[in-house]
Amino acid sequence: LCRGGLAERLCRLQNRERSAISFWRHQCISDDRIPSDKSGVLVVKILEIFEECTIQVAICQQLEQSPATLSPEDAVISAEEPILKVLFTRETAAHLRSRPQDVIHIYPPWQKLLLQNADVPVIMNTYFSQKVLLSEHSEAREKTYGLTKMLIRKNIISLAQTFRLDDLDDKLQQESSDNQVPCAPQTHNSSDSKQHPLALSAVNDSLLEMVESQGAVGWREVQVRVTIQRVYCLPAREGYRSHTQGNKPLCARPVTNSDPPNVRLCLLVQDAYGMFSEVQLQFLSSTDDIEQYCRRWEGKSCCLAGMKILQRTTRGRALGLFSLIDSLWPPVVPVKVPGQSQDSEMMTTNLPPPSFCYVLTVQSGEIHVEVDEEEQISNLYQPPAVHDLKEILLIDGCNKRCSFWAQVLYRRLQTKHSVPIDQREMLLFVTDSTLQDVAHGIPKVVAVSVTASCVLSMEIIEALSAGSQLVFFKDALWGNGRIICVERTVLLLQKPLLCSAAGADLSELTGPVRLDELDSTTQASSVCALRGTVVGVNESTAFSWPTCSRCGNGKLELCPQDRELLYCNQCSEVVTTPVLKMQLEVFLSCPSRPQSTVKVKVRHEVSIALFVLLTLLLFLQTYEVQSVLGKEVGLLNCYVHSVTSHPNCVALEEIVLL
Amino acid sequence: STLPAVAEELLREIRKAFQETSHVPDDLLLGLKFIFGPSAVPALDLVDQRSVTRLRSPSGRTLYQVLGSSGKLYTCYSSCHFCTCPAFVFSVLQKSESLLCKHILAVYLSQAMGACQELAVSEEQLTNILLAEEEHEG
């Protein structure tokens, strides 16, 4: 044996164990009583015994206390007592000579193993076991049993039952003769793994039937015809990938969903009975265009076959999914009623909204979804109902899905640096003509929160960083006065082919965008416009820095060759005319909110009017606060950082609208 | 049947423990002894000696070869429990006394601890190895 190897170690452990066992056995015999140390002792009553290889498997009931007070005859198996599977080696079993109804004490050290798909825990290393004889009667019985040999059933294990050590895929199901129809997702029999194209049976129209036939003979050939109501992407639960590309700062690059893929394409389908199911398809990479799939597939019919059930979920556990299902309820055409024959005329639209939904997935390696792209749109399809923002703000209720067009004016990324960039939440400030053209009463701009679970395509992300965009928000969630984009919300740049537009077809806004003016109702994390007079300057927060005129890099370095010049290591060139950026906090007095101290963080490039002056002053080092005080500042667009009442202060930051 | 699930779970725990700590705790080793009996120590010895090789052909077919203590090379299949050693024939097939022989157990343990040697072979080579076994038997 290798010195220091695992085999040598096990040898030593085993020798130690063996001497402990023989010592213990010896002690039991000589003492002729149960050892008094009760801690850690497992007390079990044997219900059934069988053998597998040389291991004896005993199905037992764990007893709470020492059964000195109970007699085996009248102990009834109660439902609360936990069931265990206790394994004994051949040698221990021979020593115990157990029979059903025997009570065994198992002394530590024993081991408990919990199996993945089973409820019953397994007890191993049961060397220190002793049978407890409770009464005269049983002692006598014990002696007679010693003469007759009990026949114990032996299970023969199939060679086809191999072990799967990695967690990623499902375990191979065993080929045991007692096959039950599983209700939890299980993979197919190993005999089915020969993949030849199966002759698919006639097309069914019931998802429920397909789901219920899982596990039965021929279930993989069952095809179901459904309508695709929605196409969207879900973030894969297996994890996310963070991206740092070399030394480049994260904010300079658009967020990507590049390899390995971490986004799944999903369909929300509905069958002829009105039942919904979410089908999870393949993983997408960043080059795949979700918009294409939406346009080609939504509203069309497709055939599903050989689906695997991932989950049966209910309204209480999947609020997001059911808010989407509710937006598609009731169905636009009458649906079939189960229980009637296929040709029956019994159809209805008067059904309660669904309370459960199956989540299906494809068997790995096989695509069982065939979409009839050429065919017409199905009657059952309900395109997203488009509203304008004014209508949406007036919607009553919570967790309602809504779709709308809006112009994105400003984007604010969540600034938690601990979170990787593709997991960050965003706040988008949007508007449309219905909000802009109204005198007062409704806000001019609405904040839309985009959570990390809402998958954005690369196209959208790039578009949002580039400039003001008209974006279609499909199936966003409205509730508690906020619009949020969550899982199953899709942001698109182009209009979907079919939309029932309740309002006018929104195009360009007439005139420049206006923000609500700062007033007493202004809240944090919003945008507003303000005007006022400079009453003070926070000199301690003022600083300026040079940036590269080509790429905007704020971290310029001194040139190694000529320390008078600046060097940009992103462009790998000398910067001859750097752009000076400045940041400063000024205190304003605003007539629209006279009681508050208004503190605005401004930047040089943003506000030319005020800062050409300040720049010159600071740059020339002849800065005097006096010369700036009293200057009028006209309509700045700002983002509100915080609003406090004691002290009465509003902290803002000047922004540029897209 | 219970034993295969127990054996599998034990091997998974070994794999997990090894991945997390590069070490197999004593209780898992004793568990191996409990379940696999006399095969446990010889199997671990085969792992210590890095005796297990996984052969892979371009089509993705795999096969294991284990260098036995006597110097003989035994072949173990990937898709079911099978080994060309006499102990397998006797203990597993004939008497159903063991789940595995020490070579198959060594294959699993090597998988769990990343101790498999990897060898890429051509389709023809893989086929020859399989056929050679048949000839040897026949």
- Measured as a percent range, the helix fraction of chain B is 40-55%
CATH classification, class level of the largest domain in chain A: Mainly Beta
Question: Which spans of chain A have pLDDT < 50 for at least 5 consecutive residues?
Answer: 66-75, 168-200, 238-260, 606-613
What strand line-up does the widest sheet of chain B have?
3-2-1-4
Largest interface: A-B, 47 and 46 residues
Count of individual domains of chain B: 1
- Element-by-element helix/strand order of chain B: HHHEEEHHEH
* Tally of discrete structural domains of chain A: 4
The unreliable regions of chain B are none
Stated plainly, the CATH topology of the largest domain in chain A is called OB fold (Dihydrolipoamide Acetyltransferase, E2P)
Keywords (chain B): Metal-binding, Zinc, Zinc-finger
Pfam families (chain B): SWIM
Protein name (chain B): ZSWM7 protein
GO biological process, one term (chain B): double-strand break repair via homologous recombination
